[in-house]
Every structure is written in structure tokens, then in C-alpha cells.
Amino acid sequence: MSNFIPTGIELSYLVATALFFVGLKNLGSPATARKGNVIAAVGMFIAIVATLLNQGVLNYELILLGIVIGSVLGAIAAYKVEMTSMPQMVGLLNGLGGGASTLVAVAEFWRLLHSVETVSLDNTITMILSILIGGITLTGSFVAFAKLQELMSGSPITFPLQQPINVLLLIGFLVGSGYLLIAPKDPTVFLILTGISLLLGVLFVLPIGGADMPVVISLLNSFSGLAASAAGFVLMNNILIISGALVGASGIILTQIMCKGMNRTLSSVLFGAFGGGAKASGGG
Amino acid sequence: MAEGLIGALFVFVLATLAGAEVINKVPPTLHTPLMSGSNAISGIAVIGAILVAGDRNLNLSAILGFIAIVFATINVVGGFLVTDRMLQMFKKKEVKA
């Protein structure tokens, strides 16, 4: 009996992962797209129910409350949104997913900080990657949402010294990461790294024009997959690693297809505001 | 590096290669629904959120996990429903045409 439940959970994860692959495959063709979406949703349901059976999961009230609140908010948002606002809706949802992955990494860091366990090098590296990718996804998606929703100007926003600031932030992130590898239980440095990641997400999307936002959201969707995968490495959980990698890889391919459809290259979309400014503003 | 990490890297790389093969020749009308559907799958982070919130002690980790559950569930539920709404619309259009 003691082995029955953990084995059952792992097997359920295997089924769920397979359903994700089949669902995504079906989503790519018009005749089967709707069925594919349902298949993936069934996979997600199985994965969540299986996780609730985990013996380490004790706070049922808290968890169910979270699931109910999230479901209600998600359903309201899905039914209220206008058809014309779909791309920014996906952007917003995507940001929340990236935010969740970041929070998982921060929560795991906090747990390790207050336990007697030593933090291994692997742990530190995966947590750093997780907050970096997840943080960029969170704020980048929110800026993309704001641009499409016209909460802020859709034109590329550049300011003096933008590139030097980006480079400085990246260097700061690398230095902080290096420090954390030596002294893994330093909450201040960890929080600074989280802050830099969030800032990088904003700075990454600001210089990109509103017409290119769908491509950016697709790229950030790929990032949110990688963020989930990184969170999977932090918790050493296969279903997170596999599903995240699936979304990450298919998201990149889809992004390239979308770029091709617009006769653009991905690099001209991302860095157009810096190099060929005229080209970028005329695109899309 | 720990053995567990190497195993996880194998899984990651193979899943990435498989994921890259799943998508090819998608008609433009399906770009947004496909993005939205795969975005809902990335809400799988909800599993991680449940695991970190599961601790009996109600400390900061559990609270962060709780917020992560709310975020990820919005992503999952909203994502799948929005995708279905988009695809429903395409079907009606096709019938009319």
C-alpha cells in the first residue's frame, strides 16, 4: 500500500504528459483543434488530482481555496474577454503562469533557508534560472498586455543609455548569481536577483512596437514553458520538466512560424528599435 | 553534479526535441489558439505550486505557494476556456461559409 499511491501518481503523470503531447499535436490542425484542447485539459485535470493525493500535501483547505479562487477568476476572465482582445488575454494569462513558476522557486528557496538542509550547487543553479526566466515572463507579459490593451503607448519606447543599463543589469545578475553559488543562503542577494529579473522583463518588451506584440507574446509563452521546466528542476519533478520543455520548444517553433508570416526575422522584431529603427516602426 | 540532475537533463532534452516536432505547418488562423492552448499547458506550474504549498506549517513558503496556485489556476482554467471559445468561433465561421 505504501508504494501504491506514489506509483499511481507517477503513472498518472505519465498519462497526463502523453495527453499534453497528443493535445498539442491536435491543436495544430483545424479539424482536430478543439478536440486537442479538450485532450490537453483532461491531462491537466488528471495531473492536478494526482498531485493532491501526494502524501506531502497536507494543507488541503489552503490548496483547494487557491484552486477555487483561481478557477472562478480564470473562468470569469475567459467569458468576459472580447474576441478582439484575445492576444492580450493570452499575454496576461501567460504572465500569471510565469509568475507562478517564479513564486515556486522563491518558496522553495525560503523553505531551504529555514531548514537545516544544505543547499546544493544544483539547487542554487536551478533556482536562479527559475527566477530569471519566470521573472522576465511575468513582467514582460504584463508590459505586452498593457501595450495591446492601450494602457500605455504601443510605439517602441527607448530611452538614453538603455543598452548600457541592460548590460549593467545582466552583469549584476551574473555577479549576484556567482555570489549565491558560494553563499547560497543569502536572502538579500536572492531578492536582488529576483528584482533584476523582473526589471529585465520590462526593459525587454518596452522597445518593441505594439504591432509585433503577438510575436513577443508567443516568445514569452515559450519562456513560461521554460520557467515551468526550471521550476521542475528545482523540485525534481518530471511532469513539470517535460510539459515545460514541450511548451518551450513548440512555442519557439510557433514564434518562428509567426515571424515568417509577417516577413520578419525574430531578431528584427526583438532588437529592431535599437538597430534599424525605421524598419521596426514600419513592420507588422 | 548529482545523478538526479543528469537524469532530469536527459528528460528535458528529449522532451524539447519532441516538442519541436509536434508543431509544423500551422495555418495562420490557428496561431493564436495554439499559443493559447500551449500557454494553458504551461500552467502545469500549478503542480509545483501545490507541492510547495502542501507543507502543514503555515509559513511564508506555504503562502507564496498559495499565491502561485491562484496564479497558475487562472492560467490553466482561463487558458483552456479562452482557447475553446476561439476555436468555437472558427467552427461557426466555417459552417456559414
UniProtKB/TrEMBL annotation, chain B:
The protein's Enzyme Commission number: 7.1.1.1
Membrane topology of the entry: Multi-pass membrane protein
EC top class, as a word: translocase
GO CC, alphabetical: plasma membrane
NAD(P) transhydrogenase alpha subunit C-terminal domain ranges (all copies): 9-92
MF GO annotations: NADP binding; proton-translocating NAD(P)+ transhydrogenase activity
Record-linked Pfam families: PNTB_4TM (PF12769)
Reactions catalysed, as given in the entry: NAD(+) + NADPH + H(+)(in) = NADH + NADP(+) + H(+)(out)
Subcellular location: Cell inner membrane
GO biological process: NADPH regeneration
Keyword Translocase annotated: yes
Main location: membrane
Annotated TM spans: 30-53, 60-82
Keywords: Cell inner membrane, Cell membrane, Membrane, NAD, NADP, Translocase, Transmembrane, Transmembrane helix
Function: The transhydrogenation between NADH and NADP is coupled to respiration and ATP hydrolysis and functions as a proton pump across the membrane.
Name listed for the protein in its UniProt record: proton-translocating NAD(P)(+) transhydrogenase
